[in-house]
Amino acid sequence: MNIRSSFQTEPFSLKRVLLLVAVVQLVLATAMFIYWRVYQGEFFPYPINDDGTVTCESASLLVAYGIRVPPPWTFTGVGSDTLRLNGFPLEPLRKDDTAGGLMPHQADRIRTIKAILEEAETAYKASRNKKDGMRAFADALEPYLGHILLSLQLDTENEVLTADFGNDIPEVTVNFLHDPHWVEPEGLIRSRHYGTMREIIAWLDVAEDGVFSFGTSYLELSAAADDRRLYIHLLDILETTPRSARRPLTPDDVRHILKDDALFERFEPVINDYLLNAPLVQNDVSR
Description:
By secondary structure, this protein is an alpha+beta fold. The protein has nine helices and eleven strands. It has helices at residues 14-43, 104-125, 130-141, 180-183, 186-206, 225-240, 251-258, 261-266, 268-277, and strands spanning 54-56, 61-64, 67-68, 73-76, 83-85, 88-91, 151-155, 160-164, 172-175, 211-215, 218-222. The strands form three sheets. Strands 1-4-5-6 form a four-stranded antiparallel β-sheet, with helices on one face. A four-stranded mixed β-sheet has the order 3-2-10-11, covered by helices on one side. α2 (104-125) packs antiparallel against α3. The longest helix has 30 residues, at 14-43. The radius of gyration is 28 Å and the shape is flat. Mean pLDDT is 81; it is low at 38-42, 180-184 and 281-287.
């Protein structure tokens, strides 16, 4: 009797191995899906709309870029460059204009330069890889050489580009190695956005009579009744003050109307945002 014959293995089958791998992957995927369905509250404990947006509401006062926004409120742009709440940029917040405080001709030049750099950044993002992107960035700037742009240098080895727009504007340096706006993974952005929404909605659930105010470079969450009262007082004044497109309301006008320097200084960023963003339709006396 040949004992060894009973231990002989079957011939190797690639098809059988691939089928086994496929079955294992299917089982794992099914398990992950079931786990997510059962425990999705641990990932994001609030309803998500079919289009990927998230809607919430509360008795809190929401002020977005100086505008009083009634509930319900909807988060959009999850996973994109900018998370928005009812259309207003929330993450990242809109920053102060770097042209503030400059001479008018310098302000115009900076706005033009920013638009040119944004155009080049778009070309960078549309490229297949970083090397092609750096060249695309430089190529997008080259047409402006000789008038707006005085000189342009691209160092692909060190991944740095320098652009000289003239003596009145500092030389612009673009570092392709450390700019997170270009290299941050989409998954990380999406995860951060869900974390932001989770924190804000949880706060709104707790502080039902609070104030959530955000705008140009500022964000405030307050459960203090005095803060809510001051916000309402300020907004009531701003929203009922006549405004004209022929003679725009200025911060100094608001300071004079408030007759309270401390109140003006406390809410100056909110006032500036209101004057910039509030429509003239309701209070335009020129009609």
